[in-house]
Amino acid sequence: MTVPTAAVPTASPAAVLRSEWAKFRTTRATGYVLAGAFVIALCYAYLFGTANGRAYVGSSPGEQASFDPLETAFRSLALAQLLVSAVGVLAVTSEYAAGTMRTSVTVVPRRGRLLVGKAAVVTMIMLLCGPLITLGSFLISQTMLAAQGAPSASLTNPGVPGAIMGGGLYLTLIGLYGVAMGFLLRRTAGAVALGSFLLLLPASAPLFPEWLAEWAVRYWPSSAGMGMFSPAPSSGSLPPHMGFVLLATTVLALLTGASAVFRSRDV
């Protein structure tokens, strides 16, 4: 006579969410890196605002007439995004480093549910923190422009509120991109290094042939996504909604691939 094997209880989605939130807030590294994203964004907003304000004062009348303060408003996000991506990576790889991932998949045998739980926690945190980072970058950069005697923008300027929310959504997607990289590579150093390289690849566009440089600036997901926080996108870039679709589709594809790898690979 065969003795039936007791089924392994599966944690409910709400229980997984509570567990992943507890892991996130008790892992010091994720909190430190998220705080670092705020610091980097605000410090570089100060530096960019100061430098561009001084450049305006020392420029010719023609250059002053074409000066756009909004070009300074969100430049610091290009650096802050690297730490936001690292937050998503650490939400995953900290468990591999501590050796607790095997326990997690034992408690939550549905690995897709575990991945979704981690992604949901990062999403909720970045939907709150992302707009705050973007707002802080805008306010500090514009304050420093005004302090140098250069034109500055205010929150009531056309397109600014939408750009701030778009920047927050962009950073949320970058956090999810980090989650996907963490599941794909499982090692913090490798996931952060490769993730950062891919995010910053368009910055190397001047080294490419002209046709490839134009393609990278226009269609590379991170570059296209940056149009989400550009109040006045340039003529060579995709419209903000198309940039969002391209970046979101890329992140979804990476998460789908991460889920497939996570399901098929030993922890």
UniProtKB/TrEMBL annotation:
Transmembrane segments: 29-47, 78-98, 119-140, 160-184, 191-208, 242-262
Keywords, comma-separated and alphabetical: Membrane, Transmembrane, Transmembrane helix
Presence of the UniProt keyword Transmembrane in the record: yes
This protein's name: ABC-type transport system involved in multi-copper enzyme maturation permease subunit
Species per Swiss-Prot/TrEMBL record: Planomonospora venezuelensis
